[in-house]
Amino acid sequence: xxxxxxxxxxxxxxxxxxxxxxxxxxxxxxxxxxxxxxxxxxxxxxxxxxxxxxxxxxxxxxxxxxxxxxxxxxxxxxxxxxxxxxxxxxxxxxxxxxxxxxxxxxxxxxxxxxxxxxxxxxxxxxxxxxxxxxxxxxxxxxxxxxxxxxxxxxxxxxxxxxxxxxxxxxxxxxxxxxxxxxxxxxxxxxxxxxxxxxxxxxxxxxxxxxxxxxxxxxxxxxxxxxxxxxxxxxxxxxxxxxxxxxxxxxx
Length: 251
What we know:
By secondary structure, the chain is an alpha+beta fold. The chain folds into two domains: about 30-135 and about 220-250, no CATH class; about 145-215, no CATH class. It has eight helices and twelve strands. The protein has helices at about 15-20, 55-65, 70-80, 90-105, 130, 175-180, 195-200, 205-215; strands at about 30-35, 50, 80, 110-115, 120-130, 135, 145-150, 155-160, 185, 220-225, 225-230, 235-240. The chain is globular.
């Protein structure tokens, strides 16, 4: 007669135990962020955001996604921040937090190449992000949603800031105009979404541009511009720091 014998676990892979011992006293250089461009005033129960530096595997995932059709920025933030859902972030805060993730991971210095638009020379540029980037915070008086006045129709419209999860509606000019109604809560007191959508199509172009400019306003947040000066031809021009996939690698 056969006897059933209980299989006893061997306690797991000893390599994992050794790894746990190796990193037992390791503390990452994380950052606690309390001051956001939005001041956190549009997030429920905001208590600050904890930012963890990228790991080697995180960087490899980013570099391996150069050709992938995914929102690598949002994926990166999901790995690195605690304290708010990435999809709920305002655009002004999302860009600021990207800067902070890079600072926590690689330091405040950012080296990148710029091609001079005048003489086509490739120039290695070196910036200290915290010194070259200015942050404009929202005034205490601003609210979300907020009320604006349409200049031609001369009525009030209630609008709100888009969130990160809604960026697909704002990917280009055509998308912005087609989806503006999603960020308008009322026009002349009427809150019916179908009414709002139809009303926008009949608005004077000045009123539509007013709506769009307020919805996608870049007035607040981090200003990624810097003054570029070519060492070869001395050409000067205002440029934006390239916030591409290379922003999150040491190379």
